[in-house]
Backbone:
């Protein structure tokens, strides 16, 4: 952490300006000794840099990149809309353009829904990582779908891993996940916690973005691709999903490298990141059967609230809904009330013993149907 005495005169002026302004969100953020993050991560050098954040205002803020969602537009839809399966309603709902997906007013504000300077700074900050995505997607797609070589340019692969890392961390579900511990503490004290400070701190630190990216890059990577099949991969409100393997008997839980991560680059390409084992690090695999595509889409349905697709025929409404409903019901049955869960570790032990993990996909006959012919391949 950089000491205030070590800051330049110009940087001190910036801090003074923030503290004397009506930007209470930034005053609160800086008062928690996070001023160095602002300078290190967004490179504010002078007072002119401050002005642009005070002038520009982006109200509709996406927690999944709009340009990424556009890759899943239905080509037969004249308005360029994306087909949607609402997992709560258990049905396909009205299609929308990407502008209306995964978006909230001032999502990146200190308090969601309230306009502040911080939300504009983060909007700009995310753009640093987003600007090159479409070119990256085109390069990778060409290497996978058009080249016979199994090799993928390592620089492109690493850049994608960093992008996936940011995609994972910026979502609403990730914010809720990292906020759980804070909520428990505040609830215990009888305090209502409404700010997003924890998420902002996590997101703002490039060490986290590149750290997770490095971990993904060093896992075993399967690249599944589709040619000539009726089914395509779907994405969701959480494009980069984490699937937990069997529980280890450890108080530390499941580390990042032991989890399985999935990310659909587009409707034809799915990246799977596995715990590293000896052998080939990166493997290209062409999927030959529609059921295999459905299998991976079903796994995604369990970990998502909304599915997005370039064709509603990729949705098997009943199967997806049953899989997710069973999963959610099982979680409620086991975990029950959160306060009770904190006090009753026996419940957790029973969960570990009974299910050996919280990824229930392999326990459902509905998934077995799609998996049975591919078991050896999936191992």
Residues:
């Amino acid at each position: 952490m950089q000491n205030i005495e070590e800051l330049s005169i110009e940087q001190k002026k910036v801090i003074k300006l923030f503290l004397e302004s009506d930007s209470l969100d930034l005053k609160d953020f800086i008062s928690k000794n996070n001023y160095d993050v602002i300078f290190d991560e967004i490179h504010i050098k002078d007072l002119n840099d401050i002005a642009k954040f005070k002038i520009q205002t982006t109200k509709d803020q996406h927690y999944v990149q709009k340009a990424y969602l556009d890759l899943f537009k239905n080509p037969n839809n004249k308005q360029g809309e994306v087909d949607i399966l609402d997992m709560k309603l258990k049905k396909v709902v009205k299609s929308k353009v990407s502008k209306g997906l995964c978006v909230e007013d001032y999502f990146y504000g200190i308090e969601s829904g309230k306009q502040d300077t911080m939300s504009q700074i983060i909007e700009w900050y995310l753009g640093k990582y987003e600007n090159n995505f479409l070119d990256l997607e085109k390069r990778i797609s060409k290497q996978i779908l058009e080249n016979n070589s199994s090799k993928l340019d390592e620089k492109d692969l690493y850049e994608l891993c960093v992008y996936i890392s940011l995609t994972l961390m910026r979502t609403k579900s990730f914010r809720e996940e990292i906020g759980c511990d804070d909520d428990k503490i505040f609830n215990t004290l009888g305090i209502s916690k409404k700010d997003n400070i924890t998420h902002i701190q996590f997101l703002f630190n490039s060490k986290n973005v590149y750290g997770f990216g490095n971990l993904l890059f060093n896992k075993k990577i399967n690249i599944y691709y589709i040619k000539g099949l009726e089914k395509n991969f779907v994405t969701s409100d959480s494009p980069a999903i984490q699937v937990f393997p069997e529980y280890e008997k450890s108080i530390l839980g499941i580390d990042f490298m032991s989890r399985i991560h999935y990310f659909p680059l587009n409707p034809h390409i799915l990246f799977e990141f596995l715990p590293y084992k000896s052998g080939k690090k990166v493997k290209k695999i062409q999927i030959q059967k529609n059921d295999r595509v459905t299998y991976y889409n079903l796994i995604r349905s369990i970990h998502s609230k909304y599915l997005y697709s370039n064709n509603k025929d990729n949705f098997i409404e009943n199967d997806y809904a049953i899989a997710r409903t069973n999963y959610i019901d099982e979680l409620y049955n086991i975990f029950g009330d959160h306060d009770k869960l904190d006090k009753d570790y026996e419940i957790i032990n029973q969960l570990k013993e009974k299910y050996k993990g919280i990824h229930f996909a392999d326990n459902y006959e509905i998934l077995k149907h799609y998996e049975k012919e591919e078991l050896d391949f999936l191992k």
Remarks:
- The longest strand covers residues 220-226.
